[in-house]
Specification:
With 194 residues, the chain is of the alpha+beta class. The chain has seven helices and seven strands, in the order ααββαβαββαααββ.
Length: 194
């Protein structure tokens, strides 16, 4: 007998547990054990080949489920919480599964998932439990091959060069920098660069 419909957070914790047990994600034990307590985590963070992964789930019977889920996933990437975010749309019938049957039912069901990263937002795809690993691997490999780090370094380099240009053209910069920097002294006098 089902006492009340299962909440999305319960489904997220159970999915994290299953992914951890199958070796797809490394999920901290503290997150999995929180699933047995009243307070459930808002964000489930796992590890996939050293990259932090967030699981964000919504039951497909929630009003505007796709829009809300996409916004939540994008926000997790923008906040820098994880390099990959898995958006999962659970089939509505999972809400009413007996707790003792939930694990078996989740492994058998088809979900809609979408993997978000800094460089790509992927596409919604129907996926069973076994497909999640393949989709994660493809996204991870794509992220590594696209040299996201190189583009971030180029952006940082451009910002530093622009700041340097602006500072060097300002008439008061030299005097302010002399006040801030400790210049070496020789025989009680400041050494000049001239």
């Amino acid at each position: 007998m089902i006492l009340s419909p299962l909440r999305e957070e319960v489904l997220n914790v159970k999915l994290a547990e299953l992914l951890s047990q199958s070796g797809i994600l490394s999920v901290p034990e503290s997150i999995i054990t929180m699933g047995n307590t009243r307070r459930l985590p808002d964000v489930l963070i796992g590890n996939f080949f050293g990259m932090r992964v967030v699981l964000e789930g919504k039951v497909f019977d929630t009003k505007n489920a796709i829009k809300i889920l996409e916004a939540d996933c994008r926000r997790r990437i923008q906040e820098g919480i994880a390099g990959l975010v898995i958006g999962i749309l659970y089939p509505p019938e999972l809400r009413n599964v007996e707790w003792s049957e939930l694990e078996h039912t989740m492994v058998e069901k088809t979900f809609k998932i979408r993997v978000f990263s800094e460089s790509d937002e992927g596409n919604w795809a129907d996926s069973d439990f076994d497909d999640i690993s393949a989709i994660l691997r493809r996204t991870y490999n794509s992220l590594i091959n696209e040299n996201v780090v190189d583009s971030a370094v180029d952006e940082l380099r451009g910002g530093i060069e622009e700041a340097t240009q602006r500072l060097s053209s300002s008439p008061g910069t030299e005097g302010r920098l002399k006040e801030l920097l400790i210049l070496p002294h020789q025989n009680g006098r400041e050494i000049s660069e001239e």
